[in-house]
Design goal:
With 496 residues, this protein is of the alpha/beta class. The chain has 3 domains: 8-277, Rossmann fold (3-Layer(aba) Sandwich); 281-433, Isoleucyl-tRNA Synthetase, Domain 1, CATH 1.10.730; 445-495, no CATH class. It has 16 helices and 15 strands. It has helices at 43-62, 88-96, 100-117, 133-145, 160-167, 178-184, 225-237, 251-266, 297-302, 320-328, 340-359, 376-385, 390-408, 416-433, 445-464, 468-480, and strands at residues 8-11, 16-19, 27-32, 65-70, 149-152, 155-158, 201-205, 221-223, 241-247, 271-277, 280-282, 285-286, 336-338, 484-488, 491-495. The strands form 5 sheets. It has a 4-stranded parallel beta sheet, with helices on both faces. The radius of gyration is 27 Å and the shape is elongated.
Amino acid sequence: MMNLQPMLIYNTLTRQKELFRPLVPGHAGLYVCGPTVYGDPHLGHARPAITFDILYRYLLHQGYRVRYVRNITDVGHLEHDADEGEDKIAKKARLEQLEPMEVAQYYTNRYHTAMERLNVLPPSIEPHASGHIVEQIALVQRILDEGYAYVSNGSVYFDVRKYQADTHRYGRLSGRVIEDMLATTRELDGQEEKRFAGDFALWKKASPEHIMRWPSPWSDGFPGWHAECTAMGAKYLGSPFDIHGGGMDLVFPHHESEIAQCVASTGHEPCRYWMHNNMITINGQKMGKSLGNFITLEEFFDGSHKDKEGKEMLEQPYGPMTIRFFILQAHYRSTVDFSNEALQAAEKGYSRLVQAYKALGRIAPAKTASVELPDYRQLCYDAMNDDLNTPIVISHLFEMAKTINSAADGKATLTRAELDEMRSVMETFMFDVMGLTDSASGDNSAVIDGLMKIILDIRATAKANKDWAVSDRLRDSLNALGITVKDGKDGATWEM
């Protein structure tokens, strides 16, 4: 069913919101830079995955046929994101005495497991950089043929100065001024491979100890980091395609270089819209291993992280849905700061929404309503159509929850049509569009609900037999676990 509504998205290239107009009506092509698989997934992986999962879900919800491509970088990503140094995966393999592809596969599996727990939908296609060496070599050759690259000692570099002189496009995305770089950078002597420090590698000649290497017309080596996304995006989405996404940290040099490669090889830019999510901080600091605040997703889920001094940084485990809900409480272009207090507040807030949704099934419909409801469905659509404004959607859901709770407490009445509409709106925007689940933990919700039903049935039997000691012990034991039992005229209910 097509439900195409006008949708504004912020285009980093033009620095303004623009109406989304796909190249092919009813179809949408989306490419998002995926993880470099040399370590466990962390919050920095979660934010773009969740951000573009929302975009993917919403495009599908509107009825678009979406091809979502999210790559796996398993070669060509050097230490410090520079053109010199050791490949991150090769370094990990050397340290752990493994084959590089063992490292890549192990952490790819770990990434997939974490994304599944966060309820992130898998992409339509997940190409690996190592599986597209032929396409990357062909891209490099086209750029050489067009005169925008040069070979130096077996490596191939993009000629930024020539590209800028001919196109005046380098720096458009990031706002970097190449003329300032040219004015302040000295000419390098003949011992250096690059003609200009700002030139970036399209192909690197492998040193003798480098494990990951492929034959090419220039040397046995490996592709530069930037080449993979240009080659794979064009292969699976065409050139140009609709939307290219990623974290804001990729704007320069990665995405700026992608534009240069595409323009140099085809004469046009790779896509129509560039979308970037903002960064994550922890207690106001940038996340980093050197700072001791680098927390993996698994550590969030089990509450096991310690800082450099061995002090527990996490006061408790945080379920995948708590992490997801917290990320969605901020607009994707805003910075998100993680702290125990903020996560605990998110956990409580999401629990309130879950309990309100569950309360809908316990409210007896009235013939007439005592409150006049706004058009929550359209309000949520308006927010989503305004550059995926999930915080506003959540605020509307909280307003709806207040009305539901008032009706559940007997302080308001709602008709069957209103109850059905509220249930539909919550299911559409909480579950389908925002990808949340009806369990605050996000894990084993059906099992937990089933166990709680058994416990409450046992307690109801004890109360019916006037066995108050058993009834009170069950209630108090659950309360000690953070589960509140509420007795009502229609039986007992529970909430985390």
